[in-house]
Amino acid sequence: MTSPEREYVQSHLDDLHADLDAWLRIPSISADPAHAPDVAASAEWLAGALRRTGFPTVEIWPTPGAPAVFAEWPSADPGAPVALVYGHHDVQPVDPLELWERPPFEPTLVEGPDGPELHARGAIDDKGNVAFHLLGMRAHLAATGRDTPAVTVKLLVEGEEESGSPHFAGLLCERRDRLDCDVVVVSDTGMAAHDIPSTVTAMRGLADAEITLRGPAVDLHSGSFGGAVPNPLHAMARLLSALHDEQGRVTLPGFYDKVRPLSDRERELMGRVPFDEQAWLSGPAASRVATGETGFSTPERVGARPTAEVNGMWGGYAGPGHKTIIPAEAHAKLTFRLVADQRPEDVAAQVRAWVDAHLPEGIEAEVHAPPGGVAPAASDIDSPAMTALLRAIAQAFDAEPDAVLFTREGGSGPEADLQEQLGAPLVFLGGGLPTDRIHSPNERVLLPMLHRCAEATAHLWRELAGLSLRRGAS
Amino acid sequence: MTSPEREYVQSHLDDLHADLDAWLRIPSISADPAHAPDVAASAEWLAGALRRTGFPTVEIWPTPGAPAVFAEWPSADPGAPVALVYGHHDVQPVDPLELWERPPFEPTLVEGPDGPELHARGAIDDKGNVAFHLLGMRAHLAATGRDTPAVTVKLLVEGEEESGSPHFAGLLCERRDRLDCDVVVVSDTGMAAHDIPSTVTAMRGLADAEITLRGPAVDLHSGSFGGAVPNPLHAMARLLSALHDEQGRVTLPGFYDKVRPLSDRERELMGRVPFDEQAWLSGPAASRVATGETGFSTPERVGARPTAEVNGMWGGYAGPGHKTIIPAEAHAKLTFRLVADQRPEDVAAQVRAWVDAHLPEGIEAEVHAPPGGVAPAASDIDSPAMTALLRAIAQAFDAEPDAVLFTREGGSGPEADLQEQLGAPLVFLGGGLPTDRIHSPNERVLLPMLHRCAEATAHLWRELAGLSLRRGAS
Prior knowledge:
The structure is a homodimer. By secondary structure, chain A is an alpha+beta fold. Chain A folds into 2 domains: 4-203 and 376-465, Aminopeptidase, CATH 3.40.630.10; 205-259 and 306-368, 2-Layer Sandwich (Alpha-Beta Plaits), CATH 3.30.70. Helix content of chain A is 32%, strand content 20%. Chain A has 14 helices and 18 strands. In chain A, the strands form 5 sheets. A 6-stranded mixed sheet of chain A has the order 1-2-6-3-7-17, sandwiched between helices. A 4-stranded antiparallel sheet of chain A has the order 11-13-9-14, with helices on one face. Chain A has a 3-stranded antiparallel sheet with strand order 4-5-18. In chain A, α1 crosses α4 (127-144). The longest helix of chain A is centred in the C-terminal third of the chain and has 19 residues, at 447-465. The two termini of chain A are 34 Å apart. Chains A and B meet through β9, β10, α6, α7 and α10 of A and β9, β10, α6, α7 and α10 of B.
């Protein structure tokens, strides 16, 4: 079932490809200071593309770090709702470079089993997800015959998401008035599969901690002292082995206190999403078995339950051969993924209490838990904005709105800041797939997903206009 | 109670100081290939000093690594026993250099609470312990009025002890005929305190293993996969936390099977050695508490019981900030100290069985346990050679032979190779003290300890001559 929106998109695919090809050649790696000029060039490129699309207001907003791009196209309709699109124009580093089959910043078209793929760093995360909005806006205007969109559309595309968005909350606070909106459309996620229309309804939060254990004042000779004084590596192993209980639950005291239980309806909705665990294991998870908290499925473990992971551990001698020491120190880095309604600022005290409870005599501990972290974010699946989104996605996929499934994203981003600081509900529209290798070598995007999303966003601006979204509206 | 030996030593202290001062200026660090010429120069210096002392045979024996020095002074007495002195002329590296109060290769005399100290790398480990034999031999000849020693004295001073003696067993095998002897006098250890005459009766053996655990095929994003696939760092923590049971015993299957139990007499003899645990903790052990295997004292834990220590552990991210990964691999290096009659070659299979027993589903393990290792070595405290040694030490300390205490050395060296390949009993005569900071910055020797040892060795050659040591003698 075609539509004017789809017809426009399908006849302008080359525009999207040309945009992406140019943008993806800019190595806007925010984590690497050497690439700061590239991140700035990426912002400039996007600003130019937004102007060419017709946005009357396009600004580059500096931050103490990398610049963000802001654009606004007001609707001429009085009382039209305001939608704010969130995305980012920076990309992950590319190492290990030797594992890339093609140069990461020379976008290459590859014919895949599900359609044409574009391979490049940032192809989906997040330049592809931002770029479809350019085509989508043009399709919306062409299909509706309007000079201005049916809703006021704002875009905020930051340049530090892959570096933890260190200045994003400050930017939101500083520019709050300009960012006022009725709904936030997050375009930094994806769908369950190329043939499964779906939307993300939650992202996990994040807190981190570094633990240092100290034993002897200096590295000791293991022959002269081994077996008679505490070894911090032994203490660290015992501590970390107690991070999860036999049910795979995190043992930090109070860790689950604020976790909103999964309702039967939420579990039923998650369960509708087809999930091939063997394909997931042999594909993206690259693991032999699935494991985790007892009583929850793999999608629930990743999307809807809080977790604790040791991301790094080190101490003593790691060179060739052996060195017979009892090292003075042992170290570990941990991150915690949080779900609603956990708060990242609670985790530091929980980690400290947990370390104290597991510390053997003669070992001293230091816990460094930086303030901040990322709060979990969630959509209200019964909101008017969600109704509009489901209708828009359904049209792009030739499906009914109730065939659009709900997924949860295990990762974390600044979405909760948008929700909390702007006081607007979140919906998620993105074209990524679990097989897109984001953050890894050979990142790619399935181009038909971007075409569907461009069409969906064109529908979305029209659908949102018909709803009573305005805060304070009856 | 003076003796001709002591009179000679006391009137030739300057000779010992001059020898040591010259030798300690040569930075013979065997672990650093850049110092290979210095190790060679150190061998040359020692060969010259042995010739000046009067040894008729002095040879430098090349190895695939650093050269050893061999010397022999046959006794003119028919049927005189043969003693072989073992020591080494290489030294430990000096880093961290900034912690040295004086340049490590500019020997400095310091007046300490117990007498003059000489501060330099190698001052006691092991140049001091070898150098006293030069003065000791001259004292023996002068005191007895002999032209040749009362026993045939051989010296074998290797150049790779601080690098694990990789070519020592091969050298022993190759030069077996030249090294034939009735007793081996190891001079690479020390005594319990400056005023406690004692001898070491055992050294621990050593085996090492490196363990790699593998989970996902690549580092995974902890947001997308955290909580749902096995994390090798978690598996490593659980594995290593199971290395000891609640009684502090090593859990490797079969680890204790060949351990010779401590007899009541041995424990009583060890218990005679004064040990101030608080002074040990606040001094050399630099630790807050003593801990270890239940039912054993600290000296027993270090000297007479086998132990397992994790010397290094690493995996995942160790840089600034955090990196939200589940790493593909985790690593650990372990060493095991062994006591009679454990065999280092048994440990690899024990480690493999232990790892297999503790491996969670979805994690693969690789155990790298190099062949070799070091066997434990022990003296027979009731042998004729021990009787001679105790008499010699007692005379040097103005004590009775039964006042000479027995200690055990927790460290490991190639002594078992000497015992096994040459088929001769070991005795230990060395002047080190627990406070000498061997292997650490500010290594020193208490010079009166070397004077006592020089005198003791002069007595020893005389005492040994009177005993029936010859293998095969009735």
